[in-house]
Amino acid sequence: MAENLSVPATGDKKEKYEALVPQISALIGKENDFMANLANTAAALHQCFGFFWVGFYLVKGDELVLAPFQGPVACTRIKRGKGVCGKAWETAETVIVPDVDQFPGHIACNADSKSEIVVPMVDEGHVIGVLDIDSNRLNAFDQSDKRYLEQICEMIVSIRRTQRFVPTWQIIQNPNALLRRSRRFWKDIENKFKEAQLNYLPHVTSTVAEAKELIIGLCKKGERHFVLLGGDGTLNSFINAVMQSSVNPSEVYAALIPLGTGNDWCRSHGYSNRYLDAVDALIQGHFACHDVGLVETIVDDQVIDVRYFVNIAGFGFDGAVIFNANKKSYRFFNKQLYLINLLKTLIAYRSQEITLKSLDFTITKAIFSMAVGICQYNGNGMRQCPDAIPDDGLFDVVVIDKVSVWKVLQNIKNLYKGAHVNKLKEVSVFRTANLDILSTPFIWGEVEGETLKTGHYRIRCLGSAIHLMVFKFPE
């Protein structure tokens, strides 16, 4: 159609929307560029109704970032849950504010704004952005606006989904997974890809360093869709490569086909024991935003090491177990070997005094171990953080205070069940997005079976930082 709108100059709001919606549909229906469609939608609404401000914000990590708009200059970034836009994102529901001055926590981008409506754009259960409209009149929006604006947002998302390009999946194979037997399973996986007519390009790496270099290179070339054949170590290496590649991780989609001896991350997400079921989940597009943890090791006020994780970081006894295990080169590291190293470490290990700092508190006490969890399982099935939620923007921190060796042995079964948080008086649990661990001497730390460099630790949760394939999120 021509870039002209035909909307009644007179008439009520409903009549204008009824005339405008099909014209927006025609305007954006054949255009592949998402940003261009947002720009024309904002312009059409602004032209038709003369709103003070009309525009979009898109989800980027843990923030809403300004996208195409019509009106005065606006706030560029908005945190989840903050202001009207952040509230609509958090609740995934339309928010109507008759008087912005009466809205708790309202972000005043412009003093002339008097009332506001924000409509979330939801794609496959996840908010990808919001439509924000401001008026310079009080009480300018009602259920009629809500109905038609939600219809417009649904239309935008639907067009985006149907016109979404077909990606080429970069297959990252870990030849060391499953006692070097992972290649045997590749033929079955490849047949599934061919049956589903998925585009794919396989890559086989021989070392962790080679895999990291490959992934960083692919990200810099614009690749954003990956399939990982391996276990927890493969996923951990991938996450660290992506986060260090300088690309926006929220643009990345990754699916893990579990072929490792330890698949703790998969346990939190309801993965099937049959690895080909993961290929079916990939075909069906079961992806969700996932938090990423950042651990910085600090010595003499200098950051000497940076690691990322999507499962659990362990400190104190947990770190010492991994340190002792990594002294030897095992062909595989299953539950039995983990328990053997746990028992060997337990004999000589002693609790240590540390200081924990978050935005809400500072605590100094002797601890036996501490798990900082995005997900629930580590140690080949040990449910250390039983209530952790991978997309809430918070760590579940489970601290075990100084405790006797005998009591630890008595409660190993409870640790695997996740019952220790209720049955051990020495256990405390709290949630935070920021945590500092200070100790002298330094305590051991580990991430996904890799020992961290020792020092003070600064830990941050990067909310909804990357898209990972899941079967289900823990509730």
List the helices and strands and how they pair.
Elements: H1 13-28, H2 34-49, E1 53-60, E2 63-70, E3 77-79, H3 83-91, E4 95-97, E5 115-123, E6 126-135, H4 143-162, E7 168-173, H5 177-180, H6 182-195, E8 199-204, H7 208-220, E9 225-230, H8 232-243, E10 253-258, H9 264-268, H10 275-284, E11 287-299, E12 302-309, E13 312-316, H11 317-325, H12 335-348, E14 352-357, E15 362-373, E16 395-401, H13 405-410, H14 412-417, H15 420-423, E17 427-432, E18 434-438, E19 445-447, E20 450-451, E21 456-469
Parallel strand pairs: 7-8, 7-9, 9-10, 10-21
Antiparallel strand pairs: 1-2, 1-6, 2-3, 4-5, 5-6, 11-12, 11-21, 13-15, 13-19, 14-15, 14-18, 15-16, 16-17, 18-21, 19-20
Assign the structural class, choosing from mainly alpha, mainly beta, alpha/beta, alpha+beta, or little secondary structure.
alpha+beta
Query: What is the fold named in CATH at topology level of the largest domain?
Result: Tumour Suppressor Smad4
Question: How many helical elements?
Answer: 15
Helix fraction by DSSP (H/I, runs of at least 4): 25-40%
> What value does the Rg take, in angstroms?
25 Å
Described by its quaternary structure, the protein is single chain
Specify the CATH class of the largest domain. Answer: Mainly Beta
Number of β-strand runs: 21
Q: How much beta, percentage-wise?
A: 25-35%
The CATH architecture of the largest domain can be given as: Sandwich
